[in-house]
Design goal:
The complex is a heterotrimer of chains A (about 180), B (about 425) and C (about 375). Chain A is about 50% helix and about 15% strand. By secondary structure, chain A is an alpha+beta fold. Chain A has a single domain, classed as SCP2 sterol-binding domain (Nonspecific Lipid-transfer Protein, Chain A, 2-Layer Sandwich). In chain A, strand 2 and strand 3 form a beta hairpin. In chain A, helix 1 packs across helix 2, helix 1 packs across helix 3 and helix 1 crosses helix 5. In chain B, a hairpin with a 4-residue loop joins strand 8 and strand 9. The two termini of chain B are about 25 Å apart. Chain B has a six-stranded parallel sheet with strand order 2-10-7-5-3-4, sandwiched between helices. Chain B has 14 helices and ten strands. Chain C has about 375 residues and is of the alpha/beta class. Chain C contains 14 helices and nine strands. In chain C, the strands form two sheets. Chain C has a six-stranded parallel sheet, with helices on both faces. Chain C has a two-stranded antiparallel ribbon with strand order 7-8. The chains are: A alpha+beta (about 180), B alpha/beta (about 425), C alpha/beta (about 375). The interface between A and B is medium-sized, with 25 and 27 residues. Strand 1 of chain B pairs antiparallel with strand 2 of chain C.
Chain lengths: ~180, ~425, ~375
């Protein structure tokens, strides 16, 4: 019957690579920021040792995993979720939703208001993680772009932003 | 016209409403291929004679499997498992839940256990773990407030592990919600005020928070109008059947609105006061409502102004100059609390420091506010609030709401 | 606003509308335990090349999507039978219907067959009382909302059940562009008629009101913009959203005269149902307001907003709505080539009489033939019933 045909959807490789790089960088920046910024450190202090959380894209990734080791240090644990127990799991519902978020067309709040974000796990902890990500974004992004990504730009001193930003970039790139 | 860019809307529950709606239940069950329901309720519901009314309305046409009315206010996993066993032992094939939020949540939990044949309810916690239709569930709300007859979520505590589990799935929705004026007719004025203000807050937050959308907006507007037109009347004349039915409808409309567009800081703070000081939910809602409008004012003034139409009525809307409408809404929200305070001989609290328990003790001591503020930061509703809220912001609002003074708006940090 | 003594409302539809709505389909199907959908559409829709947007949402699923584009002008049993067999041996578990009424009717028919026994399709089954297989409807520029309603027309048979409504209606800006302003006007008139008759109907309920209210508000804000600029994405999206809302409202209210007459005129191939309803609207609403207890005033708020509503004295609100509808008709007819009266399209009064007779015979509303004829004649002359 020529009324029937089959379509193989094309993969969205470019978008996936872009998001993977962003996730990699955000993951390493969270690790760096936890050592640079006392507010971010404080949020993590309340998490138990061995705690892990993941941010990524349903159904097949990319993902990033961040956890707290036995010494209480926050560590970027890579992109692979296999074999890891994830305590708080945050997923964008699809690659396009993730693309909107990581190109700052939708803020975290907007994305969640538009029902594009799934959060599984303890809600207070997830709330703390979102606050951490918001703060990291303030460090990483120029004010103009950060304002698109968060609800309210914090009134930090210029010193905190600038010095923190260079230290976090430095550490994130070198990975310590 | 407000367009949110992208939204999702769903109200899958069949709604049957009227003065004689209970009589439709056998037909509803029949459509769902069920004929032996387990009736779940709490002592308050049976005490008010509501289960008797229900039984009388349906028992001619259908066999009732069992009536279980020992669901406590803080229901938990043990209760759920026990009731699931009753369901199986008596060979039931459907559940009828009669009551407020706690009964509804328990019924949803029982439904998971008996439908999935689960020995561990925990496996189904979180979002999206349920994949199949559950057993038929009919919800009969008795409070005109929570709207949980149309919400997708259920919270079930595990007291042994000291944990609360959240379940969300469209499959948790009841098949039908039956709103019957007889079910709320005997609700005392104070409870009526409290639960209706809960619904009012659902509607107003749905209309003003980040996930608002055109269909939920229409539900919210309708709910606000019905509550403001009927609440004081019903509190003063509890036997007003039409007023009762209107409030029951409004609570469901508000439930549909907020379960699709979520709620903001009234719930953020209200949940936390409830969790720490065990204050009834509706009381917290009515106290924080004017404060949330003040706090978010700079972001949503136009939406607040629109609320004057359903809340104040058309005459007031007409006579209030455009640039003062939003302020008028805040004024009205405060006035409504005052009117309800007067109509209930002071039982409806206007501020946090006024809330007293049965023995007359103050329920929210001022030194608890810091703990409440810290808890609030962990409430999921915080993300749907138009303006950012940090610890200091929460504390500022809590202090004002405790004293009963308007917010000092110069101190609000505007994003 | 009065609350009815008794009502029932049932709308199993979930709506996902706006930017990237299509991309949410896989996760929605997953939530209903479905992974391998069949796309059903028609040649016209397929040739526009928009099916690729639907397919692209599945880029992560690793599946090969089956697309059937052989739906004709109406749904028929033999097509459904073919699809039924394909369903059986391809391991399909859900349906995505993209396109107009016949596509949705075919999808609903297939769903009846695969969810129960194929024989169910042979009778006017009143007995569809449980959920069927997951059905997703993707709206296009042709959608007027009737297609997502609880009705399915297959061959000579009509099926009615809320469970025939799609589980999910998807409105995505990439899908809803219309080919011409005329087409937009026609579909919008159907949407408008359904919403208007639902919200003014004597036996309406507060929940269906909400859907109708939102639909009318969207049409008021976006229709003229879309007619002037048919390529405008935002207005086309809003009109498509309105159509789905109207479909939900319509499924929960009784038929009104505009709908009944419009459908019959289309059935007798005198005029498209959109054009017929566009002509009939002012007269149908006027008649029903005068004689059938309809509350025209109930649609004033969505048509003018709060400000103008409160400025209109209560006893003038019905009149105001009627004049607004006439004005809207004027505006549309002077922007696109839509007929204003039956006289304009030379449908003789004799034929209208036959329409009235047919509708009166089949309608359950209890309205008599001469009433239908009054409305048709007024629409022929283009003169209000009260003069």
């Amino acid at each position: 019957m020529d009324d029937y045909r089959e379509l193989k959807p094309r993969s969205k490789l470019f978008k996936k690579i872009y998001i993977a790089i962003m996730l990699w960088f955000v993951g390493r920046s969270i690790q760096a920021a936890s050592r640079v910024d006392k507010d971010i450190k404080k949020e993590f202090d309340d998490f138990p040792e061995g705690f892990t959380f993941s941010l990524g894209v349903a159904p097949n990734g990319p993902y990033m995993v961040v956890g707290k080791d036995k010494q209480g240090k926050v560590k970027y644990l890579g992109w692979n979720r296999q074999g890891k127990r994830i305590d708080v799991d945050m997923k964008l519902k699809n690659i396009e939703a993730a693309f909107l978020l990581f190109t700052f067309q939708e803020s975290t709040c907007r994305s969640s208001a538009r029902n594009r974000l799934i959060v599984d796990g303890d809600v207070p902890t997830a709330a703390a993680i979102v606050r951490v990500i918001d703060m990291v974004e303030v460090y990483l992004l120029p004010k103009l772009i950060a304002k698109l990504a968060i609800r309210r730009y914090p009134s930090w001193s210029i010193m905190r932003t600038l010095i923190g930003r260079s230290r976090i970039y430095f550490r994130a790139i070198l990975g310590y | 016209m407000y367009s949110p860019g992208y939204y999702e809307f769903c109200c899958r529950v069949k709604i049957v409403a009227g003065h004689q709606a209970l009589e439709k239940i056998p037909g509803l069950l029949n459509d769902l291929n069920a004929n032996k329901p387990l009736i779940l309720a709490d002592k308050g519901v049976t005490g008010a004679g509501l289960v008797k009314i229900l039984s009388a309305a349906i028992e001619n046409q259908i066999e009732i499997g069992s009536i279980e009315d020992d669901i406590p206010q803080d229901s938990d996993l043990k209760v759920v498992n026990h009731l699931a066993n009753v369901y199986r032992d008596k060979g039931c094939d459907a559940i009828i839940a009669v009551g407020g939020g706690s009964v509804m949540d328990t019924a949803k939990g029982v439904n998971i256990v008996v439908s999935e044949n689960a020995d561990d309810l925990m496996k189904f916690s979180g979002a999206g773990t349920l994949k199949h239709q559950l057993k038929p569930l009919i919800a009969i709300p008795t409070t005109s407030g929570t709207g949980s007859e149309v919400t997708v979520a259920a919270v079930i505590a595990d007291h042994q592990k000291n944990k609360k589990m959240l379940f969300t799935s469209y499959f948790l929705l009841p098949n039908a919600a039956v709103l019957d004026s007889r079910m709320t007719l005997t609700l005392p004025p104070f409870f009526t005020a409290m639960t209706a203000m809960d619904a009012m807050t659902h509607a107003i937050e749905a209309y003003t928070c980040l996930a608002k959308n055109p269909i939920s907006d229409a539900h919210a507007i309708r709910a606000i109008a019905m509550i403001s037109q009927n609440l004081l009347n019903v509190v003063k004349n509890p036997g007003d059947k039409n007023g009762r039915l209107a409030l029951a409808n409004a609570a469901t409309l508000a439930g549909v609105a907020f379960s699709n567009s979520m709620v903001g800081m009234v719930h953020t703070l209200g949940h936390s006061v409830g969790a720490i000081c065990h204050v009834p939910h509706g009381t917290c809602m009515s106290i924080f409502l004017p404060y949330a409008l003040e706090y978010n004012f700079h972001k949503i003034e136009s939406f607040i102004a629109e609320i004057l139409f359903p809340l104040g009525g058309e005459d007031m809307y007409r006579s209030t100059p455009k640039n003062q409408r939003a302020e008028k809404v805040i004024e009205l929200a405060r006035k409504l609390n005052q009117d309800l305070f007067d109509a209930t001989n002071g039982r409806h609290s206007r501020f946090l420091k006024e809330i007293k328990d049965r023995e007359g003790r103050q329920m929210v001591p001022k030194d608890k506010l810091t703990e409440i503020a810290a808890t609030a930061l962990g409430d999921g509703s915080i993300f749907y609030n138009p303006e950012e809220l940090d610890y200091d912001d929460c504390l500022m609002v809590l202090n004002a709401a405790w004293e009963g003074v308007p917010l000092d708006r110069s101190r609000i940090k505007k994003g | 606003m009065q609350v009815p003594e008794f009502y029932e409302f049932h709308c199993p539809v979930k709506t996902n509308a706006g930017i990237n709505a299509l991309d949410h389909i896989p996760i929605e199907l997953e939530a209903m335990d479905a992974r391998k959908p069949l796309i059903i559409t028609d040649k016209n829709t397929y040739s526009k090349g928009i099916i690729k947007h639907v397919a692209s949402a599945f880029s992560e699923s690793g599946i090969v999507l089956g697309v059937f584009d052989g739906v004709g002008d109406t749904a028929d049993i033999s097509t459904i039978r073919d699809l039924y067999q394909r369903w059986q041996y391809k391991g399909i578990d859900s349906i995505i219907a993209v396109g107009s009424g016949a596509v949705l009717d075919t999808a609903k028919g297939l769903n009846i067959a695969v969810s129960g026994k194929p024989e169910d399709l042979r009778k006017n089954a009143e007995s569809i009382k449980t959920r069927l297989k997951p059905l997703v409807a993707v709206l296009t520029g042709y959608s007027n909302g009737f297609e997502i309603s609880k009705y399915a027309f297959i061959g000579e048979l009509t099926f009615t059940s809320p469970f025939l409504m799609p589980d999910l209606v998807v409105v995505d800006p990439r899908m809803v562009r219309s080919e011409s302003a005329l087409r937009i006007a026609e579909t919008a008139m159907i949407t408008f008629s359904h919403a208007a008759e639902a919200i003014t109907h004597a036996s309406k309920n507060p929940l269906s009101d909400c859907y109708a209210y939102a639909a009318l508000e969207y049409i008021r804000h976006c229709l003229m913009e879309a007619l002037k600029n048919p390529k405008d994405k935002k207005s086309c999206l809003a009109l498509a959203e309105a159509s789905s809302m109207a479909g939900c409202a319509f499924s929960n209210s009784r038929f009104g005269m505009v709908h009944e007459l419009g459908q019959e005129i289309a059935k007798q191939r005198l005029l498209s149902s959109g054009q017929a309803m566009g002509i009939l609207l002012p007269y149908g609403i006027e008649y029903q307001t005068l004689k059938c207890g309809f509350q025209a005033a109930d649609m004033l708020i969505p048509l003018v907003g709060f400000n103008d509503f409160v400025d209109t004295p209560q006893n003038q609100r019905n009149q105001k709505v009627l004049s607004l509808i006439r004005q809207m008709q004027d505006n549309i007819c002077s922007t696109v080539q839509l007929p204003r009266t039956f006289k304009d399209v030379q449908i003789e009064k004799e034929k209208l009489k036959k329409v009235a007779q047919k509708v009166a015979e089949s309608s359950s509303s209890g309205i008599r033939e001469d009433a239908y004829l009054t409305v048709l004649n007024a629409a022929y002359d283009g003169k209000p019933i009260m003069g």
